[in-house]
UniProtKB/TrEMBL annotation:
CDD domains: AHBA_syn (cd00616). This is Lipopolysaccharide biosynthesis protein RfbH. The keyword Cell membrane does not apply. Pfam families: DegT_DnrJ_EryC1 (PF01041). It comes from Candidatus Roizmanbacteria bacterium RIFCSPLOWO2_01_FULL_37_16.
Amino acid sequence: MKNRFIPGKTYVRVSGKVFDDEEINNAIKVAKDGWWTEGEFGKKFESDFRKFMGVRYVSLVNSGSSANLVALASLTSKVFGERRLKAGDEFITTAVAFPTTVNPGILYGLKPVFIDSDIDTLNANVDQLEKAITKKTKLIMMAHTLGNPYNLDTVVRLVKKYNLWLIEDCCDALGSRYDGKLVGTFGHVATFSFYPAHQITMGEGGAVITQNPLIHMAVRQFRDWGRDCWCDTGKDDTCRRRFGWKLGDLPFGYDHKYSYSQIGYNLKLTDFQAAIGVAQLKKLSYFIKKRKENFKKYYEFFKKYEKYFILMKTSAKEDSCWFGFPLVVKKEAPFTRNQLTEYLEKNNIGTRNVFSGNLLRHPAYRDIKYKTVGNLKNADYVMNGAFWLGVFSEIDEARIKYVKKTIRKFLELYC
């Protein structure tokens, strides 16, 4: 039962899970069946998600961060010959990022090349993209920030021109479209997160999608311990020659289920997670609709205060399923981002910064080898001035009214 919202007392969450009895009943079914690793619900979710996205292959993993890891790892497979990613190659990304969009490349020995972001989209400045490309560039890996698609016309054109890989990080952007097509269907491989903050949740969980059978095979290998076998969990002898292989220096007939062709991981999820995801996926169209509606309501309100805030700009081709409502406090405003967000939090309104701000300002990245295009001034601007409010389906008219009232009070104090 939904709790009554009490202005000033009930916390206005920026994000969170919204569910009903179906998610709980599905999880109970898994518990009773006793098959707790990936199983029937995993297969059901992959099938349903394939249909929604219109792609050939879906692989479930235990988080969006794992999705990014296995997506990049898949492109290091030797099946791609000279095109495969290897240590010393360069990949282009942006400094306004969630860490695990960038970390897989670093962990595999690639050198990140950071481009700046546009302050009124928070996405990568694609005008800098071609300047960042060198003979060592093999990959572009960037997120659609807060669900707002980046300029895929330019990105895809350059990917084709220079024969690069494109990984679309869609962890915040499930349901967003560009030129009528769902984001995630433009790149060679794309990733999604089902953490509670996102459009749908499994508690933890993620997915990797692709149209390419070789990428799909590599994703499954890296996800499933690095083994060469492609049997589903609990299945044997899908290839009909389980004891008929000769791989590496192994003896002929060595069990294919225990033959390893990649340095892999175990990144699978449980069927509990998938069971919750199956129920959540049925609600996705409603969740998308509510996020768009709430974004529009906030936009109309903050439009009156543009002398203090930079609002997000979208092109006619972009149809965003917003992860949150982002705002950038202008440098000339008579208050700071922190003053506003602290005031909101004291009044029980949740806020979040835009992820890392400038990722390179964080201690973890102090000693990495990297390159930049320009001085990343907008990334610093985002770090100091940007935040976002929640737009997920729990945000109803009463909550929006209270947020607006609180913002007005704050502006009266400072302006």
